C-alpha cells in the first residue's frame, strides 16, 4: 500500500512539474474587416475557429517556455504571431495555439511540422502545393 501511495505522490509531482513548465499566454486584438492573421510556427498544434466579432483571440501554450521566442504584433493590415525555438534548448518542447478569428479575416500560415485543425468553417479553402520550400 505504501508503494502505491508513493507512486501516486510521484505521479502528482510530475503532473505539477509539467504544468509549471508550460508557459501560457493570452492575446486579444480588435481588428478591422478584411485584415490578415499571420502565424509562423514549428512543431505546433494549431486549432483555428471563426466567430462573428471583430477581434482575434489567441491562447498560446509553450511547453518548456524557456526554449521559445514569441513575437506578436498588430498593425493596420492585421495581426502577426511568430514563434521560434531557441537553439539547443528549444528542441525539447512543443507549442499549442487556440486561435479564434473573425470569419471575414484572411489567414496566412508559415508552418514547419505542424498539425492544423480548422473548426466550424463555412468557406472555400485554397491551398498552394504543399512541397517544402528550398
Radius of gyration: 18 Å
Largest sheet: 5 strands, mixed
The structural class is: mainly beta
Question: Domains counted in the coordinates: how many?
Answer: 1
Oligomer: single chain
Question: How many β strands by DSSP?
Answer: 9
Question: What global shape is seen?
Answer: elongated
Low-confidence stretches: none
Return the average pLDDT rounded to an integer: 85
Strand order of the largest sheet: 1-4-7-3-9
Determine the fraction of residues in helical runs and give it as a percent range: 10-25%
Task: Provide structural commentary.
With 134 residues, this protein is mainly beta. It has one domain (22-119). It is 14% helix and 51% strand. It has one helix at residues 2-20; strands at 22-30, 36-42, 44-51, 55-63, 68-75, 78-85, 95-102, 106-112, 115-119. It starts with a helix and ends in a 15-residue tail after the last strand.
Secondary-structure blueprint of this entry?
Blueprint: H1 2-20, E1 22-30, E2 36-42, E3 44-51, E4 55-63, E5 68-75, E6 78-85, E7 95-102, E8 106-112, E9 115-119
Parallel strand pairs: 2-6, 2-8, 3-7, 3-9
Antiparallel strand pairs: 1-4, 4-7, 5-6
Short descriptors:
single chain, 134 residues, mainly beta, five-stranded mixed beta sheet, 1 helix, 51% strand, elongated
Structure in a nutshell:
This protein has 134 residues and is mostly beta strands. It has one domain. The protein has one helix at residues 2-20, and strands at 22-30, 36-42, 44-51, 55-63, 68-75, 78-85, 95-102, 106-112, 115-119.
